[in-house]
Model the fold of this input.
Amino acid sequence: MEPAGTELFAALRRVVAGPDRRPPPARSRRWALIRAYGMPLGLLPLIGLGFANAQYLLDNRAPGQFMAGLLSVWAVLPVVVATRRPLLAWRIAYPLLFLGALRADERESWPWSPVQILGFLLVLVLLALREDSGVIAWVIALTIVPVFVLAPRANAWGAATLLVAIGLAGEVVARRRRSRQALAEQAELTELEQARRAVLEERARIAREMHDVVAHHMSMIAVQAETAPYRIAGLPPPALTEFTTIAAGARGALTDMRRLLGVLRAETDESLRAPQPGLSEVAALVETTARAGVEVTLVPGPEFASAASGEVPEAVGLAAYRIVQEALANAARHAPGGPVRVSVRGSPGLLLIEVGNGPGSPTGPATGPGHGLIGMRERAALLGGTLAAGPRADGGYLVTAQLPLAEGK
Done:
């Protein structure tokens, strides 16, 4: 915490040459309309007051028309500036407290014109509603000086009391407004935190369900496939190979599920540290699918070499891998026995993926698009790409994705 003397002189520096505080935001649409249209309309009475002030000076002090006009413009200009920058307006009005008292007639109650007094008080009110306590204290203290110096015969103590009262009242109102604003901001932060906590709790609940149900069944599949050669005697070599493939697939699915559960349980998105599959792993994915009994062919383009050298962005590679993975799963599930062709090629700025399967043995009536197809479209859309899926003329099915390479960099 800074010493009181340092804060005091820092406030004085702001009074002399510091910037104005930003105006508070409009509390309502009506107040915004008043600020936008009402203030320009207020220029009309200010112009009238300027003419009245000039006439007052000509009648009581005879300064000449030019000087009377200059002092009158000077008297009303700070009021215009104060609507946006009250501290600057006070700096403009303060010298006039000395210049405006020149050649004052002894018959005048105060050495300043009524228009100048009212305008200065309005500037002071707007300043007190906007600025900090230290700035207001310095402004009031500096304003009281010409009151006692130039108006000793008038009620200087009464004027000083009025100035102090304006400063104190403005400080009270400004503090209440800042307190309400701080409470509103705190309430908004509390609502956001409650919403975030609700999301985290829902993600944790989903993670528990997946761990207790899906992960358990996948573990049982992996254990049964791995122990089958020891529990069942006389299995032919193809069956042993099939059990090995099933066990490896189940273990791989468990690894992916553990990674997903870690994301769901994490409070931030930075928790995912394990490397994700990319475009270079598509060949291994196709090979695993082929070992599972699917007739699948991969037509790799030069993008596989680019993926190995890191030229294809990681986000694009992950999306491509997941799209091919889901398309192969759909082909094996809905058209078993049909040949599948996976093609990955490139065009300027795009990665083109095609997964097409021929007609196979139908597994039942079509049930419409499922969550897998929706997920593939969402992955492509997140990168600014597109995905199309639909039946082919020969009775097969084709999935086509276009992923822009620049979006993932």
Notes: The two ends are 45 Å apart (CA to CA). Residues 275-359+370-409 form a domain with the Heat Shock Protein 90 fold (CATH 3.30.565.10).
